[in-house]
Amino acid sequence: MSINQASSFTAGASAMPLGHNINASSSSSSASASASVSASASSSNDIRSRSKGNADIPSASASASASVNASGLISTNTDTPLRSIRGKNGFEYPAIWSFPPFFTLQPNPSTLAHQLELWRALVLRWAKYERVFEVSVDGNELGEVFENKRIKRKLLTPSLRRLLTEMSKNGEAAPDPPKQDNRYSIYWKKPDEWADLIYTWIMDNGLNSSIMTFYEITDGDLSHTTEFYELPTPILRKALESLVKRGKAQLLEGKGEIGEGVRFLG
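^ ESCRT-II complex subunit VPS25, sequence as received from the core. Prediction below:
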C-alpha cells in the first residue's frame, strides 16, 4: 500500500501497491505475465529489502502477505483495514495516521509531496481543534499528532523540521523567533484572518478610536469568550501589523509596566 493509496483507503479495499520498484526477474517472457509470491511477514520483508531505495519503509501490517506483479509493484493484503480513530481529547485522526509508512518521509519526490500535503492539512486541523499555537521541534514531548503510540511510530526530528519548513513556505507556520528552525508558530488561522476577527470585535463593542494593550486584547475581561483569547503575542503582533497596513490601527510602544498597545482607527 502506498502513501497515495492509503490516503484514500476504504474498508472494501483488499490489495494495494506499495509503489516500490523491485529488481525481480520473471520466468515468463510475456509482457502481461505476473509473478505472485505467497509470503508470510518474513517473506514480505525479504521482498521489500530488494526494493531499491525504499528499504526503510515498514510493512503496513505484521501479518500482511505480498505479491509482485508484472509492473514490479508490491501489493499487500492486510487483515484489518485502516480506520479513523479518536485521540485522547476527541480529535478524529484519519485512517492514514495509522499507516506506519506515513511517519517516514518517502524518497520518491511525487510521493513525498503528497505525503507532506497530507501532514500539513492534518497538523492544521489538529492544532485548531486543540488550540495549539506553537510547536517545538526539540521539545520534551511532541504533540499527539506527531506520535501514534498505538502503532509505535512518531515523526522523527529531521522529518518534523522538514514538515514545519514546508508549512512555513506555504504560509501555514512561521519560525518564532525568526532565523531558527526549532520553534514555530502554527497558523491554523492566518494573521490576516485573526486581524479581521479582532477588528470586527472592536467595532461590534464600540472600541474604535480606543487604545488597548496587547494583554487587554487577548486576556482581558472582554475577550475571554472570543476565538483569539490567549492568542500568543507573536501571532497577535502580526495580526495587528496587518491592520496597520490597512490603515485600521496604530501600534504604540509600551512604557514602564504598561505593555505594548494599539490604537484602533475607524
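Residues 9-79 have pLDDT under 50 and may be disordered.
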